[in-house]
Write a structure and sequence with these properties.
The complex is a heterodimer of chains A (about 475) and B (about 230). With about 475 residues, chain A is an alpha+beta fold. A 5-stranded antiparallel sheet of chain A has the order 2-1-5-4-3. In chain A, a hairpin with a 4-residue loop joins strand 9 and strand 10. In chain A, helix 1 runs antiparallel to helix 3, helix 5 packs parallel to helix 9 and helix 7 runs antiparallel to helix 9. The longest helix of chain A is centred in the first third of the chain and has 67 residues. Chain B has about 230 residues and is of the alpha/beta class. Chain B has 2 domains: about 120 residues, Response regulator (Rossmann fold), CATH 3.40.50; about 100 residues, Winged helix-like DNA-binding domain superfamily/Winged helix DNA-binding domain (Arc Repressor Mutant, subunit A). Helix content of chain B is about 40%, strand content about 20%. In chain B, the strands form 3 sheets. A 5-stranded parallel sheet of chain B has the order 2-1-3-4-5, sandwiched between helices. A 4-stranded antiparallel sheet of chain B has the order 6-7-8-9, with helices on one face. In chain B, a hairpin with a 3-residue loop joins strand 11 and strand 12. In chain B, helix 6 crosses helix 7. Chain B starts with a strand and ends with a strand. The mean pLDDT of chain B is about 90. The chains are: A alpha+beta (about 475), B alpha/beta (about 230). At the A-B interface, helix 5, helix 6 and helix 7 of A face helix 8 of B.
């Protein structure tokens, strides 16, 4: 099926992007980790080494001073009190030997092998309790050939270093795992929702125009998207059903005058009446054509309004002045029918809109009221502010009104209340009003005026 | 008057040419843009009736723009099947003087063309402060109307309507022309409000006088005239 491939490629794109998000997230996390750990590691490392060496040196110096001032027994006592002859791998390693090499104090049994003869700081591996250990040590030859050794166990620090590195690696691993898991979750969530969108869209492509996307309630970007898509679908459905309605309406309402016209001409052609009668018939035929043209123009106008292209020409319009003018235009018609037509409004009601279409809308409302209001009735046109940023224009008549169940339908194209068939008009008047209201982001509502009809145009002052 | 008709639909062209000739005009007709352009620049016409969509490489608007660029100010009436407000604006911006949507009644075309011709020949006395027709006199500045010396009280819109009719005296004025010029409405108000306004005006200026000035012209519109 040719329709498959586009939907599949539509699904591949979010898959790719979810993976990219996961990889990007992982990389960024690792980078942050490295930025955090590297200086820490460096500072810790240099600091610890420096402090350790300093400590060794100062220990050795302190002990040699003790030797100089108080002699070998005092030094031996001091060393023993520090290490208690025990080497537990935590305490310092110390050793004090006599000139003959015999141990005087400390926690090593004897002077270990591999320690350089020369005094100073070095790193060597010595056997401690039969196990090789990396140590840093300071050796010092004192007066009379006594020797002193202070060492610190490097393995202890290396163990810490290892722990640090392992911790870091574990951390990185966890970050990568979380990234992968998060990416997969995001991908799944995205796919679920995008798949929902593409499934619904596919069913709409197949003609089920009433389907809508399920809108999530978490107010995120996808909700905005689905909301916009749903609004687009509303508009598409509205346009499509509009086209269908129009086709049906054309079939119904255009066929009638066209068949009348055809019958008239055919009869004329067959009967060949007197010239006077012929001319009268031709005039009537022209009227028929004009009626068809009227319907046609109204339809084109509706299509033009519905397309929204007129929004480009919006200017500031004073609805109060516009209402007054419409009242003035229709005033003589009302006088003729002995109907009281009144207009009430504040001095100024500014809004942004199309002056021609708004005049036509208000004109149509008054025109509609004039058509259905019997003599001695009243038509009240009222314009007023309705809260902040909204204007309401009402045309209330004392005609027969419209039954509640038919009110929404009269706004549809061509619909006329059955009882009114036979009154002139093509039944597009209120549809045009409704379309103009929609173009301006407003609505047309019909309510009961008890008795009569109350048509209200709600318009926002700016779009 | 010498007129040029540029229209590619043969039947419409024949119908318009016949009507215009009967109204006393001389009509040249071409059925494509290239010939239309050639005629329009090479011969002096009093007015041009121009279809908008034409074969022959250049359409009606193209011809009008080219003519206006050359400084040619001949009055042009555009005929078009495009009836959107934007189409109308584009046509007038290109340099057209009036715009008529197809299909049209011939009376409408003739009335609009007459209005264009009179305007071009200074026939419309738009700048006069007092205009008269027979025993009807209208003071444009003071908004005072008298018939046979008797003052006639008119409402502002009635006055505007009478002034427009008077400026086009002895000339057919269609309902659409009145809607567009007196009310500035570019749509069909369904109910024939114009007829009602005209009959009210007629009540005020003609009632009680032997010769009615405001006459209905069948299938076309109205005419303000003092000729029998």
């Amino acid at each position: 099926m040719p329709s498959r491939s586009p939907s599949r490629s539509m699904l591949r794109l979010p898959g790719f992007s979810a993976r990219t998000i996961a990889i990007g997230y992982g990389l960024v996390s690792l980078l942050v980790l490295a930025m955090f750990a590297a200086p820490l590691w460096f500072a810790w490392h240099t600091n610890v080494e420096q402090v350790r060496t300093e400590l060794l040196k100062s220990d050795a110096e302190h002990l040699s001073n003790l030797f100089v001032r108080q002699g070998p027994p005092a030094l031996a006592a001091a060393i023993d009190s520090q290490v208690h002859g025990v080497n537990d791998g935590v305490r310092k390693i110390m050793l004090f030997v006599a000139p003959d090499g015999a141990k005087l104090a400390g926690n090593l049994p004897e002077w270990p092998d591999g320690v350089p003869e020369r005094d100073g700081l070095c790193r060597v591996t010595i056997l401690v309790n039969g196990e090789p250990r990396n140590v840093e040590l300071v050796t010092l030859t004192l007066e009379d050939g006594y020797r002193l050794m202070v060492a610190s166990n490097l393995d202890r620090f290396q163990e810490l270093e290892r722990l640090f590195v392992y911790g870091l690696l574990g951390c990185a691993l966890a970050v990568l795992l979380i990234a992968a898991l998060g990416g997969a979750l995001i991908r799944r969530a995205l796919l679920d929702r995008v798949q929902g969108i593409s499934l619904t869209t596919a069913s709409i492509i197949e003609g089920k125009l009433s389907h809508r996307l399920v809108e999530p309630h978490d107010g995120d970007e996808l909700q905005q998207l689905t909301h916009t898509v749903n609004r687009m679908l509303d508009q598409i459905e509205h346009l499509v059903t509009g086209v269908q309605d129009v086709s049906n309406a054309i079939a119904h309402d255009l066929r009638t005058p066209l068949s009348e016209l055809r019958a008239r001409l055919e009869e004329l052609s067959v009967a060949r009446p007197s010239p006077d009668e012929t001319f009268a018939e031709i005039d009537a035929a022209i009227d028929d054509v004009d009626r068809v043209m009227g319907i046609f123009n109204a339809l084109l106008r509706l299509a033009e309004i519905d397309s929204g292209s007129r929004r480009g020409g919006f200017v500031e319009v004073d609805l109060a002045a516009l209402g007054f003018e419409v009242t003035e235009v229709y005033g003589p018609v009302a006088d003729l029918k002995d109907i009281m037509l009144s207009f009430n409004s504040p001095d100024e009601l500014k809004l942004t809109g199309d002056p021609v279409l708004l005049a036509q809308a208000v004109g149509n409302m008054v025109d509609n009221a004039l058509k259905y209001t019997p003599p001695h009735g009243t038509i009240a046109l009222t314009a007023r502010r309705a809260g902040i940023g909204a204007i309401e224009l009402t045309v209330a008549d004392t005609g027969p009104g419209i039954p509640a169940h038919e009110r929404t339908r009269v706004i549809e194209r061509f619909y006329r209340v059955d009882a009114s068939r036979g009154t002139p008009g093509v039944g597009l008047g209120l549809s045009v009003v409704s379309a103009v209201a929609r173009l301006h982001g407003g609505t047309l509502t019909l309510t009961d005026n008890t008795p009569g009809l109350r048509a209200t145009l709600h318009l926002p002052t700016s779009n | 008057m010498k007129l040029l008709l540029v229209e590619d639909n043969e039947r419409v062209a024949r119908f318009v040419k016949k009507g215009l000739t009967e109204a006393g005009h001389t009509v040249d007709h071409t059925d494509n843009g290239r010939d239309g352009m050639y005629h329009a620049v090479s011969e002096p016409y009093d007015a041009i009736v121009m279809d908008r969509m034409l074969p022959g490489g250049i359409d009606g608007l193209g011809i009008i723009e080219a003519l206006r660029q050359q400084g040619n100010r001949v009055p042009i009436l555009i005929l078009s099947a495009l009836d959107g407000v934007d189409d109308r604006i584009r046509g007038l911006r290109a340099g057209g003087d009036d715009y008529l949507t197809k299909p049209f009644a011939f009376g409408e075309l003739l009335a609009r063309l007459d209005a264009l011709l009179r305007r071009a020949h200074g026939g419309a006395n738009a700048l006069e402060t007092v205009m008269t027709l027979g025993d009807l006199s209208v003071d444009m500045l003071a908004h005072r109307v008298t018939r046979a010396g008797r003052a006639v009280a008119l409402q502002p819109r009635e006055f505007k309507l009478l002034a427009y009719l008077l400026r086009h005296a002895n000339q057919v004025v269609t309902r659409t022309m009145l809607l567009e010029n007196v009310w500035d409405y570019h749509f069909d108000p369904q109910t024939n409000v114009i007829d009602v306004h005209i009959s009210k005006l007629r009540q005020k200026i003609d009632a009680g006088f032997a010769t009615p000035l405001l006459r209905t012209v069948r299938n076309a519109g109205y005419m303000l005239t003092d000729q029998p």
